Each structure stands twice: as structure tokens, then as C-alpha cells.
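Look at a sample.

——
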Amino acid sequence: MGRLVVVEGLDGAGKRTLTESLTAALRAQGATVTTLAFPRYGRDVHADLVREALHGAHGDLADSVYGMALLYALDRRDAADEIRLALSSHDVVLLDRYVASNAAYQAARLGEGVDGPVVRWVRDLEIDRFGLPVPDRQLLLRVPVDLAARRARTRAEQDTSRKIDAFESDDTLQARCSRMYDALAERGWLSQWHVLDGTRERSRQGADAEQPEDVAALATSLYLGK
């Protein structure tokens, strides 16, 4: 059975780039790796409803904290078998966002803490009721809110398919979400967390927040389960 590793962080933190760097480093060490990103836009109807709501569709759906949280959770529930199959045939499965994203963003929207009702509800729903696999390790890519926002805007300018949505454009929400991620990591919510410095600027070659030797060392730790 493979190891389930999750990359978490704000929009614009560099999760995709870190996932790509880790994938390359793990494969260089002989590990079999596959990746999956949530929400699964274009693949799951619940994810597509999320994207549409965040861009103004479906009336007041985006205003409903629990309604949006349920759509995110249903997207993952529908991917549960895919994740389990991937774990049975790979050494490492890397996920770009997972259950902690739901807990962090919804608690931030409600102004609740790590022990608040919505965090408990997310865990009860996604882990206990839906039976989603529990991650072996969660990586928090920590960046200042203003840097994440600049990166998100630059990404949107370069890729028209990734327009800024209602959550990404709310700096106050992003700041609260950042604090929630820190609290979840400190608590060790669901599993062990490892906090990474995401402030280093990425080059045109795609270098991530971590230097190549740091990514290689992290990949070894993830591969060997240390």
C-alpha cells in the first residue's frame, strides 16, 4: 500500500509547482508516483458546480458555507475509489488539496477555530461517513497572503482558464484561512504535518519554494515514510 501525501496552502502558494517538483524527485529515487488535484474541475459535476458558484452562478449558493463544503466533499467522495486504487499500485500518491482545505476555508468563512463545529463536521462527513483515505503526511506550503495573491493574479493573467474566483479575491478570507492552516498543522489534524517555506520566488525553470536538494530530501522522507 502506498503513502498518501497532501500538499496544502493558499491559492497562489505554489502547490502545483511543489507537487511537480516532488513527483520528479520521487521518480528519480525509483518511486512510483501519481497525482490528483482537487477540486476536479472538468471531471466531476460537484467540482464544476463549485467553480460556477464562485464565479456568480447558481444564485446564493456561494454564500452557503455548508452547501459549498458539501460540494467539495462530494467531489472527493466520488474520487475515493480512484485514490484507493492509486494507493494500491503506487509508492506515493500526491494530492493537491484534500480534506484540510475544506476545514480551513469553511472555518475561516465562519470565523471559527480549529475546535469549532465546522471543522468537526468536515472530519465526520469526509473521513467517517464518506470513508475517504486518511493522509499519511500533509505538507503546508506557507506564504504571506499578499504574495499568494500576487501569484494568483499573475497566474490568472497568464492562464485564462484560471480566473480569480470569489474566495481568491477576498484578502480577509485568505488571511483567516492562512491562520487556520497554521492551527491545523500545529494540531496535527488528521495526520502529521510538515510546514514548508513557500516565499522563495520561482524561476522560469519552475524551481519551487524549496531548493532542489531540499525537495530531494523531502522526497526521500516521503518515500521511506520517515
